[in-house]
Design a protein that fits this description.
single chain, alpha+beta, Protein Transport Mog1p, Chain A, 9 strands
């Protein structure tokens, strides 16, 4: 079966090959559930919730992605990820900078401190290029809370960036952690 996603979306998905599987996103609802732990083990995931994006955004499964939507008609994606207890104690700026690992070029267009889920967060807009010259624009929010590091990402071509940005901001506006009973 042929994959009908735009080539840039496939390239962007390639940079997500990070730490966890997407099995905790039950029914593609508004909550990601951490994998249960036994005994005194510390879980490396977090249960968190968010708003769903409007129509045109389809849930996707990709190795390394916890919550991922790909837009149906434009090369854009929204990706939410949590990592707990294995990230160290760097600054939010350093954690944001770490997201550049798969990009050749990285230009910060804006960067400011904000608050998300009652916690300090770093909000950045980046212009970057993936190896091979694919240019992307990203809106990133990075925050730490209760021993967990969250990175909330919107990635699109510069030409399509503004078209999908409101959907990302809608998703992030309802980001909640911790979730009781999750």
């Amino acid at each position: 079966m042929r994959d009908h996603r735009h080539p840039i979306s496939l390239a962007l998905l390639g940079v997500l090959g990070l730490a966890t599987a997407c099995s905790g996103w039950r029914g593609y609802g508004d909550t990601y559930y951490a994998k249960p732990t036994r005994g005194n083990k510390v879980g490396h995931e977090a249960t968190f919730s968010f708003a769903l994006p409007p129509s045109g955004w389809k849930p996707a499964k990709e190795k390394g992605a916890q919550v991922l939507w790909v837009h149906e008609s434009m090369p854009a994606l929204i990706h939410l990820r949590a990592q707990c207890e294995m990230h160290g104690d760097s600054s939010l700026e350093s954690f944001t900078d770490h997201l550049r690992i798969d990009f050749r070029e990285w230009k910060i267009l804006s960067q400011e401190e904000t608050t998300v889920a009652g916690r300090d967060a770093m909000h950045s807009v980046i212009l970057a290029s993936i190896d091979g010259g694919v240019e992307t624009q990203m809106e990133l929010i990075v925050l730490k809370k209760n021993g967990c590091l969250f990175d909330l990402q919107y990635i699109a071509t510069p030409e399509d960036f503004e078209r999908g940005r409101a959907a990302y901001q809608q998703v992030v506006a309802d980001f909640t952690f911790p979730i009781r009973g999750g």
